[in-house]
Write a structure and sequence with these properties.
It is a single chain. This protein has 18 helices and seven strands. The mean pLDDT is about 90. Helix 8 runs antiparallel to helix 11. Helices cover about 50% and strands about 10% of the residues. The longest helix is centred in the N-terminal third of the chain and has 23 residues, at about 15-40. A hairpin with a 5-residue loop joins strand 4 and strand 5 (about 365). It has two domains: about 1-320, no CATH class; about 345-455, no CATH class. The chain has helices at about 1-10, 15-40, 40-45, 70-85, 90-105, 110-125, 135-140, 150-170, 175, 180-185, 205-225, 225-245, 255-260, 265-285, 300-320, 330-335, 375-380, 385-400, and strands at about 10-15, 140-150, 290-295, 350-360, 365, 405-415, 425. Strands 5-4-6-7 form a four-stranded antiparallel β-sheet. Strands 1-2-3 form a three-stranded mixed β-sheet. By secondary structure, the protein is of the alpha+beta class.
């Protein structure tokens, strides 16, 4: 076995798939950053709010005021350098750090595809994506034909994990037996041309979408790996992601996944794209081809890179299953829900009201959440336990600074999950100001009066 592993690790392949992946990733990320800026989200999400929800362990990551714009500029410049392959190692590290910092500034806007971008950019630090057709190779006048095969397979494995885990998460009674939450979302698309007033209202279509979504996620990686089904699989990828983008406001994720899955095509496909681009660039800039073409890229610190990549992929395989260590219904408590490739599985609506009490006099008053939170923040806070706890501590600290004594913070919360009737969510007898955030189970979350079967 060790011999076979060593043989695989020494196997080489054409560099072109890495090149196209680098260019596509850089362009898509650049567009995404510019889009975020143009829509005014930097101002409304990071600068205007007085309070920001933090990730546990990353409370020190805060928006930088107006300097947040500079952070976005740095991140955007890094994407351009990545696409061009200029100072690639510095560029990809800069992008990973800046983008991840942006992602960590406020968990109100957590999305799976933001997490995917952070994880993929971390992985790209250890891969030779600038080995060919890059400004680095042009300036050094040195390019390479071949790279270790595992450097390409690593990206394929990461994409496979995302798809497979998304598919496994859909094997649950709400998704397959009740078509939830699609049965809630699809009828609201009545204004969709040709389809909205008819197809989107049909019960059978809700189930068809649920089941096909599950099978798509589970099967698409294998269809992409197999050469005979690859083109058909890519057509499915394009159709599926474009269709979901039309139906749901999920930003750049569909396009990122479409571009990323090109990595599964063989090198001849990527060579044709590079040849096309090279001809256009040479004609436009009249560059002379004086680059020395070498065979195999000499991967520096190979053992260290392999160890980090192996550990990284191991974490990605195991981390999504941490929810098994928590009691209660995952969709209800959401303990272990994030960072596990669970995509569009729940529709939750909540109402959470806070009461500030003087423990000695029992005098109390209620908080108007609109005085402290934006509408988006209040919506996300209303049904997520860690948000509720963090906000309770913020309120306690705020009123303590105002001179209030013996503060207790209680929450009265009602949440509806996937079409169920609203029910009590938080134990309103618990002083949340005394509770501390940790990896432990939050025993003040009331149980769901139902059972959702599945993985």
């Amino acid at each position: 076995m060790a011999k076979n592993l060593n043989t695989y690790l020494n196997k080489t392949t054409d560099v072109s798939p890495l090149v196209i992946f680098r260019i596509g990733f850089g362009i898509m990320m650049c567009y995404g950053i510019i889009r975020f800026w143009i829509k005014g989200w930097i101002e409304t999400i990071y600068i205007q709010p007085n309070f920001h929800f933090s990730y546990f362990g990353f409370e020190w990551v805060k928006p930088l005021g107006n300097f947040t714009y500079i952070l976005f500029i740095i991140c955007c410049l890094a994407t351009i350098f990545i696409a061009l392959g200029f100072k690639y190692r510095i560029a990809i590290i800069t992008f990973f750090l800046s983008f991840t910092y942006i992602e960590l500034m406020d968990k109100t806007i957590y999305l799976n595809h933001y997490y995917f971008i952070s994880m993929m950019s971390f992985l790209m630090i250890f891969l030779p994506l600038n080995a060919s057709f890059s400004l680095d190779s042009y300036l050094l006048k040195k390019s390479y034909k071949l790279v270790p095969n595992w450097t390409i397979d690593t990206i394929k494995i990461m994409l496979t994990i995302v798809y497979l885990y998304a598919g496994l998460a859909k094997i649950n009674s709400d998704w397959l037996l009740k078509a939830m939450p699609l049965k809630i979302w699809l009828p609201s698309k009545y204004d969709l041309p040709f389809l909205g007033e008819n197809l989107m209202q049909q019960n059978w279509f809700h189930y068809a979408m649920s089941w096909s979504g599950m099978f798509y996620d589970l099967l698409i990686p294998f269809l992409l790996f197999y050469k005979r089904t690859r083109i058909f699989a890519f057509i499915l990828v394009v159709f599926f992601h474009v269709f979901t983008r039309v139906l749901f406001p999920i930003g750049m994720f569909p396009y990122v996944m479409i571009i990323s899955t090109l990595i599964f095509f063989d090198s001849n496909f990527h060579k044709k794209i590079i040849s096309f681009l090279r001809k256009r660039i040479n004609r436009l800039l009249k560059l002379k081809n004086e680059i020395l073409i070498n065979e195999v890229y000499p991967l520096l610190n190979r053992k260290i890179s392999l160890t980090i990549v192996f550990l990284f992929l191991s974490v990605q395989l195991l981390f999504p299953f941490r929810y098994l260590t928590y009691p209660g219904e995952l969709f209800w408590t959401e303990e272990g829900y994030r960072f596990s490739w669970r995509v569009m599985l729940i529709e939750k609506m909540g109402y959470t009201n806070f009461k500030i009490v003087n423990a000695e006099t029992n005098n109390y008053f209620y908080v108007d959440n609109q005085d402290f939170l934006t509408p988006l923040q209040e919506k996300q806070m209303s049904f997520q336990p860690d948000f509720i706890l963090e906000y309770a501590h913020y309120l306690g600290d705020h009123f303590k600074k105002q001179g209030h004594k013996n503060i207790q913070v209680f929450a009265e919360s009602y949440v509806a999950l996937n079409g169920r009737l609203s029910q009590p969510f938080i134990d309103k007898s618990i002083d949340l100001y005394k509770e501390k955030e940790s990896w432990k189970h939050k025993n003040w979350i009331l149980p769901l009066n139902d059972e959702i079967k599945g993985l």
